[in-house]
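Troubleshooting entry. The earlier prediction with uracil gave an output that would not parse, so I re-checked the input for stray whitespace and re-submitted. Clean input:
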Amino acid sequence: MTLLEQQLRQETPRSLKALREAENACRRCNLYRFATQAVPGEGPRDASLMLIGEQPGNDEDLDGHPFVGPAGRVLDKALQEAGIDRKQVFVTNAVKHFKHEMRGKRRLHKRPDPGEIDACRWWQHIERELVKPKLMVALGATAARSVFERVITIHKMRGCVVPVRDGGNALVTIHPSYLLRLREERDKRTEYGRFLADLITAKAFVDRM
Ligand code: URA
């Protein structure tokens, strides 16, 4: 059976457990070849809020869970300060396998390309179908592209709740790793404050609905 035939025959997973298994067997693009494992989304099936990152980093690839590395620690702090309990949130990524390049012995993050984002949207649609979040928060440009199916300029759209073409609502903000890349303390403080404000907007929206 060809890969296409296998994929066409593949049953759409109807539970988060089945989804995790299917993602781990995914061959929709080549990223699985170089990653340790797929990193599935995790959180309650009835979560009102879904946070979507870009792709697993080095730590997540080894651990098998999303946002457990440095960007995850920034996210956890901001969620806590925004009054959002991470255990009540479904946390996932636009792309489920870690894309990287080797620099000596180090694995350096590489941005997924549009083909990889589009291939992985299949899984995001199933996550959305199963969880039916009131709001998706797209963390950064890759997640925003995955959700809106087009290129998004973060600063033009951030912080607003916008309906998504195939149902549901989404809010775009920065990716927490952006905060880790800023050099100046003052910029870090300002941008962290804006990120926090976006999360507070998201919480207010789901609390109201
Ligand atoms: N960055 C992401 O986008 N997702 C993770 O899970 C970790 C870092």
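This one parsed fine. Strands lie at 49-53, 90-93, 100-103, 106-109, 135-139, 161-163, 169-173.
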